[in-house]
Amino acid sequence: MLSRDGKKILRGVNLEVGDREIHSIIGANGAGKSTLAYTLMGLQGYEHEEGDIIFDGEDVAVLSITERARKGITLAWQEPARFEGLKVRDYLAIGARDNGGITEEEIKEALRKVDLKPEKYLDREVGEALSGGERKRIELASIITMKPKLAILDEPDSGIDVVSLKEIISLIRTFKENGSSVLVITHREEIAAASDKASLMCEGVILRSGDPIEISEFFKNRCIPCDSRVSPPKVV
């Protein structure tokens, strides 16, 4: 459970992500999806108050964000950070330090996997005049270099320029192909439907989990924005 000013933001969330599974959390804006992602990552100000966060058989709820990252949990932000003066090659190398470092070829391969040409981007600055889509792809490439056990992707389609959903889904599957479990935060039913499993979230509660196509269709046809009603929809 997580609360703000006496109001419960997350309530009784029960969620399981399997090994090398793509699990999408779908819901409208304000449902608590990103809050859940930040809580799992251990961000300051998002420390949960009750319950366990079991990862690889260990309760990581008491661990800091740095300690969770060393355990293999990573988060790709919805809005990628800007690092003035830091070249892309150096930015991608930072995340791999705890895994014994990374070679130049591995950095290039990470860029190729997110459809960026190494020769064009390696020596550019992360804070340079890059588009939102370019920065988002570089952020995803940095997560790839970390080789996480669990990659949490917060709205991976956000800010990516004129790119098809097929390409976005392909980017998400790249993490699974690299051996990671993937938790995707999304409001796009197409992304949820392409997952291995999906959960519907509303007002800080997981309403249902299961077949991704059924969950995405339920969200598309029966859910309304969280800020337009007082209570969650009745689930039948």
From TrEMBL:
PROSITE patterns: ABC_TRANSPORTER_1, ABC_TRANSPORTER_2. This is ABC transporter ATP-binding protein. InterPro entries: AAA+_ATPase, ABC_transporter-like_ATP-bd, ABC_transporter-like_CS, FeS-cluster_ATPase_SufC, P-loop_NTPase. The keyword Lipid biosynthesis does not apply. GO terms for molecular function: ATP binding; ATP hydrolysis activity. The keyword ATP-binding applies. Residues 2-228 form the ABC transporter domain. It comes from Methanosarcina acetivorans. Keywords: ATP-binding, Nucleotide-binding. It holds the Pfam family ABC_tran. SUPFAM superfamilies: P-loop containing nucleoside triphosphate hydrolases. Coiled coil: none annotated.
